[in-house]
Amino acid sequence: MPATGPPDAPAPAPHRTHPFATLLTRAPRPLPPLTWPRPLRYLPHTLIALAATALSATGADLTARLLAVAHAATLLLALRRPTSAYWLSLICFAAICIAHPPTHDNELWAWLVLAGVLFLLALRVPLLPAATAAALSAALGAALKLLGAGVGSWSTVATGTALYATALLAGAIRRGRREDRARLAEQIEATAAERARRTVLEERARIARELHDVVAHHMSLISIQADAAPYRVQDPPGELVTEFAAIRAGALEGLAELRRLLGLLRAESADDAPADTTPQPSLEQLDALLSQVRAAGLPVTARVTGTRRALPPGVELSAYRIVQEALSNTLRHAPGAATAVELGYGHTTLTLRVTNGPATGAAPPSPGAGHGLTGMRERVAMLGGDFAAGPAPEGGYEVTATLPTHTAPPLSADKDSPA
To answer: Between 154-228 and 127-146, two packed helices, what is the crossing angle to 10 degrees?
Structure first.
């Protein structure tokens, strides 16, 4: 057995890279394209390539031109490897000033190239390493001036230092804004995921509250039958009476636990409204629902295939709520659309299909996105069925659900947990 440390041993601290190590890495850091506008996403890369071309076209002789081309090429390298480009640009700057100083007319071009590389570096690395690189560049320019190299006058040195500071500031601001947008996008995504998860949990709690009456009814029947069973037999054995009494006690205990569970599900806030004691609906009330929808101005037809029969209460309740929610969505988003409700009774399944055509009038403003589809999907998943919703081929919208009419096994934890 491998040896393990003491249970109270502190966890090893995570490895942190020194901020200045960023300037020594050769790892690629490609310049990201613009996110908007899409057709101009590579505009910065094009502008930098044009700037490098313009800065390379200088020099009075061949040597000066070759040095200018080599120095300007560091701008192109900085598009992918900014730290390597910075050190190469710094070396080119010192070599040009010492070996082949530029003339008075173009003595600022070497400073401009290094300032451009600093800007591209500040776009990709944190502020502290970028500021260190800018300070090092300014110190190199001042040191070369003190040594008598051809960097121009002190005015040129001051102007070049100002260019470095401007490039550092512009790059840092742009990098900060990009990071802020990335953090905001992550926060929006996390908020949307949390909202979706909360919506699923709220719908599941509402479904559980509705199913409480169904489960409580069955538990009550078990209790009553267990209490009455010994009286249906003359001189029942004592063991049988004891067993039925235990069954009745277990049923009553289950009912008490169900009431506590329902209290938890309904206690969403301190000032909740009193619990609704209205009996839960079933497909027996479907005709009344269709009459209400027709009175609201939605032309709806109904068709039943197969042998209509009584189904388990949970299936009846879920089927009614799915049809009710689908018709409510049609009234809300496609007023006046021709709508058809189909119920198909199979041997082991009940198929529901609610289809509406295109709207005949303008839909009223919606206060926000509802939870209708989420609730329908959760009801079907609870029963182990199949659910589909989407635009119909001929226009309009279609909701289809297949519900098993037998007792479905519980869903696995992975499938049942919200995304």
So the answer is: 170
